[in-house]
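[Automated response] Your request has been received and processed.

Submitted sequence:
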Amino acid sequence: MSDWREQAACREDLGHDPDWWFPNRDDQATINRAVSICHTCPVLAECRAFARSSGQEYGIWAGQVRGAPTVASHGATHCRRGHEYTPDNTQWVRGGTTRRCRICVSDRNASYRKTAQADRRADRLEKVAALLAQGVPKLEIAERLGMHPRQVQRDASTLKGEAA
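Generated structure:
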């Protein structure tokens, strides 16, 4: 993972709900909230470059709302993955011309968050391992990386288990 995400204004550790960046297209209040946070971000250019290079099709990236691909036509009763379209499960986008399955959108968003979380963990473990290799005490590692000392201890145990 790139260091730019650790500097992003949308970080979850700042109290922002990750779902704000993957709202329903008709939830203008949430879209406006996320976009306004984006406009305060110090790594806007890096976010935009990431969204382009990784082919992000959905969500708010660098203050820009990205639409989702068409999932079904008006006449379909089920999405491509077989979920039935119901009023609770249907999200209309593109001015009401396209509908999407909320279950599929939710699954995709969870996948994005899970990947980002795994990337952050791998980066953190790499930093902890480098500092441990330099002989830095665990308490100092916690202070340098802004972590709780118990997390440093857990990471050190994980690293020790991987080395064995």
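Summary generated for your ticket: Helices lie at 28-38, 44-53, 102-133, 138-145, 149-163. The chain has five helices and four strands.
If you did not submit this request, please reply to this message.
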